[in-house]
Amino acid sequence: MTENTAIIKIIDEITACRNITIEQLHMLLETDDMQAVDYLRKSASEKAHETYGNQVFIRGLIEFTNYCKNDCLYCGIRHSNTLADRYRLSTEQIMACCESGYELGFRTFVLQGGEDPYYTDERICEIVSGIKAKYPDCAVTLSIGEKLKESYQSYFDAGADRYLLRHETADKKHYSRLHPVEMSLANRKQCLWDLKEIGYQVGCGFMVGSPGQTVETLYEDLQFIKELEPHMVGIGPFISQKDTPFANEKSGTMDETLRLLSIIRLIHPKVLLPATTALGTIHPLGREKGIQSGANVVMPNLSPVNVRDKYKLYDNKICTGDEAAECRYCMENRMKSIGYQVVVSRGDYADF
């Protein structure tokens, strides 16, 4: 049996049983046989089509604060980065972003920010309930880090529908390489279990190519995702940021990210899987290639243009100067060019 035939057989096995072994993961990530890699992407794309057709869900991203109390070693808005140009959006500014987004057809708003103590539970609840009162047909997604279970419950009661919290790595040793000592993988995982128990549509995820990552740690990620059964998985390449301890670390690659997107789609056929901005940052057609590899969500930026360049989780981020309308129609045309249709809907998980 040739390597090509063996890998194609493995891909068919993964598709059929929705599981992967460590040996199979090694083969899929390490093969140079691009014909087999194309088969992997094609299989993942077909699997996404079975549930979602040629539809791509669009989410409006609002990055509302770049203050953060944490000091994650990879992140440009880490607490100790004194060079970060800090900002916060007012409730009025956030509502204005939603208003322009709604007019452009967005029906999901993703409120993302650092872990900023200024935004108390009360403030977050006011913002969420304000959006839901004005736009009851929209979903609100929060991505604001680790909180107490009671806090998550209060946001949910205020109307939040979804919560994104990347676990970053499911390997304890690797987690401690990426985060300060006061942060723990156990707490991060517990937050995700709490969110799921409350009733959110939950998203986890990880960077591809982060310092210290191996095929073994990636396998642990896939096992944790299988255990958690999230509704969304967000992965994108690690990209270094010049004002962090990882400034000189090598970035993750598009190729490995695309392979992992495909693998995740095959293991979790109905998952909501974004083609991330980071993917579009490392290659001009990164997001298109992500969609063709099994992804089915894109998240254009609705934040005010004057703050976009300040939300620097990593360097050279794209689309920081484009108005929301430009981002929206640019994305629609990009998806159309590869045979996909951006849909105006909440874009919920298929079985939710």
TrEMBL record:
Keyword annotations from UniProtKB, A to Z: 4Fe-4S, Iron, Iron-sulfur, Metal-binding, S-adenosyl-L-methionine
**Any one GO MF annotation of this record:** transferase activity
Q: Which sites bind [4Fe-4S] cluster?
A: C68, C72, C75
Cofactor: how and how many bound: Binds 1 [4Fe-4S] cluster. The cluster is coordinated with 3 cysteines and an exchangeable S-adenosyl-L-methionine.
Pfam families listed in its UniProt record: Radical_SAM
Where is (3R)-3-methyl-D-ornithine bound in this sequence?
S143
The entry marks the following residues as binding S-adenosyl-L-methionine, namely: E168, R188
Domain named Radical SAM core: residues: 54-270
> Which cofactors does this gene product need?
[4Fe-4S] cluster; [2Fe-2S] cluster
Q: Which InterPro entries match?
A: Aldolase_TIM, BATS_dom, Elp3/MiaA/NifB-like_rSAM, FeFe-hyd_HydE_rSAM, HydE/PylB-like, rSAM, rSAM_sf
Gene Ontology biological process: sulfur compound biosynthetic process; water-soluble vitamin biosynthetic process
Reply yes or no: does the keyword Protein biosynthesis apply: no
Task: Fetch the PANTHER family from UniProt.
Answer: 3-METHYLORNITHINE SYNTHASE, BIOTIN SYNTHASE
- Report the protein name in the record: [FeFe] hydrogenase H-cluster radical SAM maturase HydE
